[in-house]
Design brief:
Blueprint: H1 22-42, H2 44-58, E1 63-69, E2 75-81, H3 105-113, H4 121-126, E3 130-132, H5 139-148, E4 161-163, H6 176-189, H7 192-208
Parallel strand pairs: 3-4
Antiparallel strand pairs: 1-2
């Protein structure tokens, strides 16, 4: 389901000038879909293993779907491997805390290694997301932060990403304001140099578990 940005946030105009980078967007768009498809195929055995583990732990569903806000405020469905207790998974307005008791045992491992995010590779293949960009938030968070931070709407000027400049520079340890500043810095500087930089830093974050909750 897709809706106009006006159904999500009150402000519909961006307060910054968004430069169109046609060559960068075209090349990375093709690369993102190709890499996402390859990664999805390669990681299928890993996903299958953790799917069985999730099912065995509490008998609940393996995947859950959740509405997220994409470019220009359009709603799309994101897919994740369930890492929380059944009664708590998919509640969009609930933010994860450090040592959150709602996270399952297998969920802690998946969140540490970001395995629970792998199904979002499908969103990249479908074109809802890119490999690099601001992380997509649930509608409730977008409404809340847009009221608290007037510039927050500007992060919707580009497609959301599986990883991003904010995720490799503090991640969940950052405040919403700090994440926004990093997202806007990426939007302004987006190009092949920062694109490659984020990919390399993401590999380190995944291997080290830095910033995971």
């Amino acid at each position: 389901m897709f809706v106009d940005v006006t159904t999500i946030i009150e402000k519909t105009e961006y307060s910054i000038i968004i430069q169109r980078k046609w060559l960068f967007e075209t090349i990375t768009g093709l690369l993102d879909r190709l890499m996402a498809l390859v990664l999805l195929i390669v990681t299928l055995p890993i996903l299958f293993f953790f799917a069985i583990w999730v099912k065995l732990e509490d008998g609940g569903s393996v995947l859950y779907r959740q509405n997220r806000v994409g470019k220009d405020g359009r709603i799309f469905i994101v897919y994740k491997v369930r890492s929380m207790c059944v009664d708590n998974s998919g509640k969009g307005s609930t933010e994860t805390e450090v040592n959150d008791s709602r996270i399952t045992k297998v969920g802690k491992i998946m969140r540490l290694t970001r395995i629970d995010e792998l199904p979002q590779l499908l969103n990249i293949v479908l074109g809802n997301m890119k490999l690099i960009g601001p992380r997509p938030l649930v509608p409730e968070q977008v409404i809340k932060y847009s009221k608290e931070i007037p510039e927050f709407v500007n992060r919707l000027a580009v497609k959301p990403g599986l990883t991003g400049w904010a995720q490799v520079n503090g991640g969940n340890e950052n405040t919403p304001e700090e994440k926004l500043n990093l997202d806007l810095e990426y939007i302004e500087k987006r190009g092949f140099r920062i694109y490659i930089n984020i990919i390399l830093k993401t590999i380190w974050v995944v291997l080290s578990g830095d910033g995971a909750r």
